[in-house]
Amino acid sequence: MTKTLAIGKQTETDLSALKDAFDPVEVTVPADISSLDDATRAAITAVAYKGSHAFGAEQMDLLPNLALLANYGVGFDTIDISAANARNIKVTNTPDVLNDDVADLAVAMAIMQRREMVQASDWVRSGKWAEKGAYRLNTKFSGGTVGIVGLGRIGRDIADRLAAFKMEIHYFSRSEKVTPGWTYHTDPVALAGAVDTLVVALVGGPETVNFVSAQVIDALGPKGVIINISRGTTIDEAAMLDALEQGRIAGAGLDVFLSEPEIDPRFYKLDNVVLQPHQASGTHATRAAMAKLQRDNIAAFHADEPLLTPVN
Amino acid sequence: MTKTLAIGKQTETDLSALKDAFDPVEVTVPADISSLDDATRAAITAVAYKGSHAFGAEQMDLLPNLALLANYGVGFDTIDISAANARNIKVTNTPDVLNDDVADLAVAMAIMQRREMVQASDWVRSGKWAEKGAYRLNTKFSGGTVGIVGLGRIGRDIADRLAAFKMEIHYFSRSEKVTPGWTYHTDPVALAGAVDTLVVALVGGPETVNFVSAQVIDALGPKGVIINISRGTTIDEAAMLDALEQGRIAGAGLDVFLSEPEIDPRFYKLDNVVLQPHQASGTHATRAAMAKLQRDNIAAFHADEPLLTPVN
Q1: Is B231 a catalytic residue?
Q2: What is the pLDDT of residues B48-73, one digit of tens each?
Q3: How far is CA A104 from CA A108, A160, A178, B112, B115, in A?
Q4: Number of CB atoms found within 10 A of residue B187's CB
Q5: Closest CA to A49 of A82, A109, A94, A17
Q6: Is the omega angle on the peptide bond into residue A24 within 30 degrees of 0, that is, cis?
Q7: Are β-strands A4-7 and A197-200 bridged in parallel, bridged antiparallel, or unpaired?
Q8: Average pLDDT over residues B247-261
Q9: What are the angstrom distances between the C-alpha of B16 and each of A109, B19, B21, B292?
Q10: Rounded Cα gap, residues B172 and B191, in angstroms
């Protein structure tokens, strides 16, 4: 019997690679596991998971011999780590290979928001430039102050880029890091109060829910812009929408949302927000690298070798 | 009689500052100079010029005592420098104060093109994300190779930013510069052949017309993207449009065009091009700094002190 279960919609290339390597059983979502017969489920020791549905105790208990849950993506907030630990299931993710793409999108959203580049693009394409003249002046980006909320690997990659834009870098992190003189804050409210642009690069999951609270948003103030490439859960989204609508912050650049892809319709009415469809890691090269790292973790497991990127 | 003539549409703040400093005669475009009476024209020794109309021998000869032509903007391709030299007219521009803004826009256009961020924004705002699912994968930006055509002050500011995106930097310039190991090319065709992204940061004017020729564009190839924040004249625009339409290059990010603001309608049909309305220096802070530098040059001239930023 095959030992690997692949869950999720794969690209043709990735599916072909998974088949070549593991000849897996395939289902589309975790809820489909229950449709597999007992013998098939009992044979599964490793899952290749790709998706945004919860994978918890219920799914794990349907796979009595599961020992590896290899997630596609750096964020693993869909997976119940406590339930995995209780069943001696190791979880892996796909860190680092997507950092560059995520940092690129964060920086571009930040510039696009200040320089109103989506609106300026519309100004050209609608013919208004020719009809009505120059697009309105907007706000300088370089030389500002930025606060990184969460100076992990992605936060660091964002900060390194922003330093080249002559920005003064501040950050919050659980512990102080070795940096080129960046300013460490232990309090996210104090961080927000010290900067004009706040970039959220936290891990998701229950511990960071609403970490960027109404109080943090208020501290950022009317010249402030929030950039979020982490998870929709890390920001008090209703409080952010209130602040955006009322001009208590200047704007936002968001790749992630609480109820994506059915995002809060209040976002559609805001022209001070750059909206992206959770595409930060969405390049051919990076998605291929993520799929390869997922496969490499599964191959290591089946070969009884150390996992490459365990998270528990 | 007043010695200063202000030409162009000023912001209220700038106009007020010009009045306080010089009590100038005001006209809107160079063609209006002829409507001033002889005595007024003869009194003028300095012009504060802002605009995109040509300022040449004909205009200069209407101002027999003109000795300073202070341009608002770093590019002075509207001004006939030979004609100015022949009449002992000094020309000044407003360099450096706009470099950061121009570099910011160049970098953002480059990322937006590769990551299809205008289209991805439309995908969210049109509701397609919720209806049809994820936006399509696109192309990684960081880690690529970039060629800077013209490593002057703006080109350097762009390259410094792109280095933070882990890009391999190549450049063309009239002479080799001191760099952190960047690759110097004496031939723009060879430069284009070595890179995936070509950023045009040349000065405008007759010497650089069609510098990015059909041959350079062909050498860039089907994975290549052209970014232009210099002048529309520096690229063979018809050849670039052909290449964009035929997929012989991957795309472009353009803030400047040959016949702006009435740009070639072929651009509107291209979805692989990021279009901006010549707004690179268009921030409140930078435009105020440009106007101040223009006034400072005029004040220095009237006080018989050295000009701050002469170009001839």
Answers
A1: yes
A2: 999 999 999 999 999 999 999 999 99
A3: 6, 11, 23, 9, 9
A4: 11
A5: A94
A6: no
A7: unpaired
A8: 97
A9: 35, 5, 9, 12
A10: 7
Give φ, ψ of B257 to 5 degrees: -145, 160
Pairing of strands A197-200, A145-149: parallel
Q: Do A103 and B114 touch, CB atoms closer than 8 A?
A: no
B residues 276-295 near A, CB within 8 Å? 276-279, 282-287
Which of B9, B117, B118 to substitute to test the interface with A, most A CBs within 10 Å?
B117
Residue A190's contacts (CB-CB under 8 Å, 6 or more residues apart) are A219
| CB-based contact A117 B262, cutoff 8 Å | no
Question: How remote is the C-alpha of B228 from its chain's centroid?
Answer: 8
Stretch B234-248: mean pLDDT = 98
With a CB cutoff of 8 Å and minimum separation 6, the contacts of A214 are A236, A239, A243
Residue numbers of A annotated as active site: 231, 260, 278
Helix (H) or strand (E) holding A253: strand A251-254
CA B208/CA B130 separation, integer angstroms: 48
pLDDT score of B10: 87
Domains in chain A, start-ordered, CATH in brackets?
4-97+284-302 (3.40.50.720), 99-275 (3.40.50.720)
- Computed over every residue of chain B, the mean pLDDT equals 97
Average pLDDT over residues A36-58: 96
Angle at A68 between CA A38 and CA A55, to 5 degrees: 70
Q: ipTM greater than 0.90, yes or no?
A: yes
Closest CA to A109 of A222, A228, A216: A228
Q: Is A274 on the interface with B (CB under 8 A)?
A: yes
Number of residues in chain B = 312
Burial environment of residue A210 by CB neighbours within 10 A (0 to 12, 13 to 18, 19 or more): middle
Output the pLDDT for position A1: 78
Q: Which of B119, B137, B160 to mutate to test the interface with A (most CBs of A within 10 A)?
A: B137
Phi, psi torsion values for A281, nearest 5 degrees: -95, 15
Kindly report the backbone phi and psi dihedral angles of residue A272, in degrees, each rounded to the nearest multiple of 5, phi listed first.
-95, 20
Q: Are strands B251-254 and B183-185 parallel, antiparallel or unpaired?
A: unpaired
At B284, give phi and psi (nearest 5°).
Answer: -55, -45
- Please answer yes or no on whether A124 and B282 come within 8 Å at the CB atom: no
**Cβ pair B213, B242 in contact under 8 A:** no
Question: Per DSSP, what are the bridge partners of residue A253?
Answer: A227, A274
Enter the pTM of the model. Answer: 0.94
- Mean pLDDT for B284-302 is 97
